[in-house]
TrEMBL record:
Organism the protein comes from: Hyphomonas chukchiensis
Biased composition, class Basic and acidic residues, residue ranges: 33-64
Region of interest (Disordered), residue spans: 1-64
Top-level division of the source organism's lineage: Bacteria
InterPro entries (alphabetical): DUF4169
Pfam family, one: DUF4169
Phylogenetic lineage: Bacteria, Pseudomonadati, Pseudomonadota, Alphaproteobacteria, Hyphomonadales
Name the record gives this protein: Uncharacterized protein
Length: 64
């Protein structure tokens, strides 16, 4: 005789595996690696430094 199966556990396990598969697909489609994230952050910081370095104090048209 076989052992009885708890249908609630089987249903939850099936739903859990479906969610895990969807999460894996989303990671592959939308995810970025740590290197990509740090590279993007470094580029943004460099751009901010460059624009702050070229900023003029005051309005040059109204110098008196």
């Amino acid at each position: 005789m076989t052992t009885p199966i708890n249908l609630n556990k089987a249903r939850k396990a099936k739903a859990r595996s479906a969610k895990e598969q969807a999460a894996a697909e989303n990671r592959a489609k939308f995810g970025r690696t740590k290197v990509e994230k740090s590279l993007e952050q470094a580029r943004a910081e460099k751009l901010a430094r460059l624009t702050d370095g070229h900023r003029l104090d005051g309005n040059p048209d109204k110098q008196g």
